[in-house]
Design brief:
Radius of gyration of chain B: 20 Å
Pfam family, one (chain B): ABC_tran
Oligomer: heterodimer
GO molecular function (chain B): ATP binding; ATP hydrolysis activity
Distance between the termini of chain A: 53 Å
CATH superfamily of the domain at 1-80 and 213-257 in chain A: P-loop containing nucleotide triphosphate hydrolases
Structural class of chain B: alpha/beta
GO cellular component, one term (chain B): plasma membrane
Helix content of chain A: 25-40%
Strand order of the largest sheet of chain B: 6-7-8-3-9-10
Helix content of chain B: 25-40%
Number of strands of chain A: 10
Strand order of the largest sheet of chain A: 6-7-8-3-9-10
Family (chain B): Belongs to the ABC transporter superfamily.
Strand content of chain B: 15-25%
Structural class of chain A: alpha/beta
Radius of gyration of chain A: 20 Å
Largest sheet of chain B: 6 strands, mixed
Organism (chain B): Paracoccus onubensis
Chain lengths: 275, 294
């Protein structure tokens, strides 16, 4: 279940111009190479506009590549037939950043979590009753209860909604989960609970995580390996402890220095520690 | 006399389900030169406290059960609307979280800054550096000069050219700086910043914090920084107030509160932040800790 990203380049545009048009388009990803080992947590760090989200869209084949290959267990995702692609997507799921925007407000929690089972019904072949049983099992797995089944998203807090998003992602029994800033919209206290839930689920289900975040503290906590992306290029990658303790690139050093430390004595603004 | 003094503030808000008390006996005193951090989770009442200071809680739904807010001696809760307008955007500067919704996309940056400068000058002509009887045209020209100067001050390069840009041509960080420029034009004595860096990248956040710190040094203003990021508080603030469910649990100098927190909730908040030494699976949510504390 390893994922390999080989020489991936994605150029948006160029806008169609005349024969002399100089517009070369926007290079969102530039020769990106990554190896995500099976069962690991791989972190991707970068600021807004660095290409994090474009890379996830390329992995899921929501975007076509300009160049390069994305291999999942050796199979090129971008070479699959539509039928095979759909089968693969059951095993490759995503949890989105904004728990307020990614759940349909007109659907009950039951229907939201059951939807992947309907989409992939040729894989699971569940009756309506079996589907409901599976939905309940999933909700319990993420710490929600049966009384929540027929409520609507607006009745839940941010942390609970993100749990629903996780339950939906797990419905089709994936082995690879893309987590696109899953806790950045949450309070630190709720973030701690969601991170612990993700850690527990990984141990129970043997999942591989591709974890996107701009919060280096979260990455350090949850990931084994990390890659730093800047303007579509990978700046560096390696084991988390190594990158954090001995960053080789100036950009990573800058990112680490800019991260506000909760220790008041490490403030750059406070020369004398007595204030 | 303190710059700002909030005493026993109790606020109730009405909704379809009836009236609920939101703030329970808030006490807070801010002096010039102090940067106060107000931390707490979503729904703890941080923002409503901030809005109360400039009396921006809608009168139709909000009701103050008790308490007072004094800003440089003015009784904010009982002042007339006319008096409040002299304070808002003038003596009390405000910066909100989302720069995209707080700028008008249809007007140029310059137009929006000039408006603020002209409005502030109605109450205090010295904002433009002009005497009271300057002509309309002189005032406009001076306001534009002030706007350019402020843009430069908040670190936007080529302010003379950028002033005619529209908000969408600015990046998120530049828009947030523009909001700071807007808040600073009236030369406020108190700056209320409600999550000013939450939507920004860490590198841009670091620049904004530096900017606020410089403003405090230069002008000796007081700042109330509302945030849920304890890292930001630890770096920038001199004092901190911890809020939980409409109450202030703990206040004090930032080092005391963050290094020797006296309240279990503050300890829980600190424990919820993953640090270098936190082992995977050992992070603790607030629920666990508060349950143990009873």
């Amino acid at each position: 279940m390893s994922l390999d990203i080989l020489n991936v380049t994605k150029i948006f545009g160029p806008a169609r111009g005349g024969i002399l048009s100089r517009d070369e388009g926007f290079r969102a990803l530039d020769d990106v190479n990554l190896h995500v080992p099976k069962g690991s947590s791989f972190g991707l760090v970068g600021e807004s506009g660095s290409g994090k989200t474009t890379l996830t869209r390329c992995i899921l084949r929501l975007e076509n590549l300009t160049r390069g290959r994305v291999l999942y267990e050796g199979t090129d995702i971008h070479g699959l037939t539509p039928r095979d692609l759909r089968r693969l997507r059951a095993r490759l799921q995503i949890v989105f950043q904004d728990p307020y925007a990614s759940l349909n407000p007109r659907m009950t929690i039951h229907d939201i979590v059951a939807e992947p089972l309907l989409i992939h019904r040729d894989l699971f072949r569940l009756s309506a009753r079996q589907r409901s049983e599976r939905v309940l099992e999933l909700l319990e797995q993420v710490g929600l209860r049966s009384e929540h089944l027929f409520r609507y998203p607006h009745e839940f807090s941010g942390g609970q909604r993100q749990r629903i998003g996780i339950a939906r992602a797990l419905a089709s029994r994936p082995d690879f989960l893309i987590l696109d800033e899953p806790t950045s919209a949450l309070d630190v206290s709720v973030q701690a609970d969601v991170l612990n839930l993700l850690h527990r689920l990984q141990q129970e289900l043997g999942l591989t995580y591709f974890f996107i975040s701009h919060d280096l503290g979260v990455i350090r906590y949850i990931c084994d390996e990390v890659a730093v992306i800047y303007r579509g290029k990978l700046v560096e990658q390696g084991p988390v402890a190594e990158i954090f303790d001995r960053p080789r690139s100036d950009y990573t050093r800058m990112l680490l220095a800019a991260m506000p430390d909760p220790d008041p004595d490490k403030s750059p603004f406070r020369q004398s520690p007595t204030v | 006399m303190s710059l700002l003094e909030i005493t026993n503030l109790n606020l109730a808000m009405r909704s379809y389900e009836g009236e609920t008390q939101i703030l329970h006996g808030i006490d807070l005193k801010i002096e010039r030169g102090e940067i106060w951090g107000m931390v707490g989770e979503t729904g703890s009442g941080k923002s409503l406290t901030g809005l109360s200071i400039s009396r921006l809680i809608p009168a139709a739904t909000g009701r103050y059960l008790a308490g007072s807010i004094r800003f440089e001696g003015t009784d904010v809760l009982n002042a007339t609307e006319r008096e409040m307008r002299k304070l808002r955007g003038r003596k009390i500067g405000m910066i909100f979280q989302d720069p995209t919704t707080n700028l008008n996309p249809a007007f140029r940056i310059g137009t929006q800054l000039v408006d603020v400068a002209l409005h502030a000058a109605e109450h205090d002509p010295s904002v433009l550096g002009l005497s009271g009887n300057a002509s309309r045209r002189e005032r406009r020209r001076a306001a534009r000069r002030v706007a350019i100067e402020m843009l430069g001050k908040v670190g936007i390069s080529d302010p003379i050219e950028r002033i005619d840009a529209y908000p969408h041509q600015f990046s998120g960080g530049m828009r947030q700086r523009m909001l700071i420029a807007m808040a600073m034009i009236g030369k406020p004595d108190l700056l209320i910043a409600d999550e000013p860096t939450t939507a920004l990248d860490v590198s841009v956040q670091a620049q904004i914090l530096k900017l606020i710190h410089q403003l405090v040094l230069e002008r000796d203003i007081g700042v109330l920084m509302i945030t849920h990021n304890l890292g930001v508080v630890a770096q920038l603030c001199s004092h901190v107030a911890v809020m939980y469910r409409g109450r202030i649990l703990e206040t004090g100098p930032v080092r005391t509160v963050l290094k020797q927190p006296s309240h279990a909730y503050t300890r829980a908040l600190l424990a919820a932040i993953p640090t270098v030494h936190t082992k995977r699976g050992e992070l603790r949510g607030i629920g666990d800790i508060m349950a143990e504390a009873g």
